[in-house]
Specification:
alpha/beta; Udp-n-acetylmuramoylalanyl-d-glutamate--2,6- Diaminopimelate Ligase, Chain: A, domain 1; Rossmann fold; 5-stranded mixed beta sheet; 10 helices; 29% strand
Length: 322
């Protein structure tokens, strides 16, 4: 599998409106001020607590991040007299700030809300604790800023293992996935598979919102797997643990027959175990992928069947020689 020429997409920024759209229910968010500024961009996958900035020290103010206001910041502002508060806030607002997020349903001073309204800086408030707000927003931002790519293939959840099936057009990827769904497994995406690297160590497959869980079967046409088999046979995202490439059987090819030598494919900086399976009449590829998925789970548990058999043969050979 050639992964060198895969197009990689990295978001440079997201709008505050994206955070509102995705996290309003999860964080129980309400907008207190600056609603006209929800289109402001967020450039960093991190947050900042502006305690030092409120004290007047702006040398290393991380203004491009979402600013989190907890008990410490709100109570500090309450201890400032109105003139001091206005002066400190004016200095802060000389920078481009994406948004403020308050935790614990804290109530800021009216002077702060007025300045946010005039500057168009959104003020969001959550009922959750400060730690919870920080954790969830960072996880959301990490996902949003994660590198993405798109591959031609099919992704299925087979025995809890995310399998990405690739191969040349017409090799039988969709038909194999259809048989796996018929056998009780779940389809993630067919034909167009979006891949996203989360936190630099995990690769996730996602379904395309337009194609969703439709599938093209040559000779039949477009089918809707969710409508035919029910919502229990589909899912929208799954971590990829195994890549299976299907190819036409070639007699001269050297296919792995022991499993002792493991191959990996690097996608978006994540190494994924890779198998190359030859296709020929009479081979049930769906069952082979099931066995490959179960073998992968055994290896994750520290059990390698090929190594165990190899160790037995070596042990028997040593006994016979002695």
């Amino acid at each position: 599998m050639d992964t060198q020429n895969l197009p990689v997409n990295r978001k440079k920024s997201i709008a505050v409106a994206r955070l509102l759209d995705r996290m309003t229910q999860e964080l129980d968010i309400e907008v207190l001020a600056g609603f006209q500024g929800i289109g402001r961009p967020v450039y960093a996958a991190d947050v900042n607590r502006p305690g030092l900035a409120l004290s007047g020290y702006l040398e290393y103010f991380a203004n491009d991040r979402i600013q989190i206001l907890g008990n410490t910041e709100i109570h500090f502002m309450e201890r400032l007299n109105p003139a001091q508060l206005i002066r400190r806030l004016t200095s802060m607002f000389s920078f481009e700030i994406p948004a403020f997020v308050l935790s614990r349903n804290l109530a800021p001073q009216n002077a702060f809300l007025d300045m946010c309204n005039r500057s168009g800086v959104p003020v969001l408030r959550s009922s959750m604790s400060t730690d919870e707000v920080i954790t969830r927003i960072i996880l959301f931002l990490n996902e949003e800023f994660s590198p993405e790519t798109v591959v031609h293939g099919t992704a299925v959840d087979c025995f809890g293992v995310g399998c990405l099936i690739i191969g040349s057009p017409g090799i039988g990827k969709s038909e194999t996935a259809l048989e796996l769904v018929e056998r009780g497994h779940r389809l993630v995406a067919d034909d167009v598979v979006a891949l996203k690297c989360i936190r630099g160590e995990r690769l996730y497959a996602e379904s395309n919102p337009i194609v969703e869980h439709f599938m093209e079967i040559r000779g039949v046409g477009i089918i809707d797997l969710k409508a035919i088999y029910g919502v229990g046979r589909v899912r929208n995202t799954k971590r990829i643990g195994l890549i299976v490439e299907l190819e036409e059987w070639r007699p001269e090819a050297n296919y792995d027959r022991t499993g002792l030598a493991e191959e990996f494919v690097d996608i978006l900086g994540v190494k994924i175990p890779y198998l190359r399976i030859p296709v020929r009449p009479g081979r049930n590829i769906a069952i082979i992928i099931e066995v490959a998925a179960l073998t992968h789970r055994l290896k994750e548990l520290g059990i390698n069947p090929a190594q165990r058999l190899n160790e037995r043969i070596i042990s028997l050979t040593r006994e016979q020689r002695s």
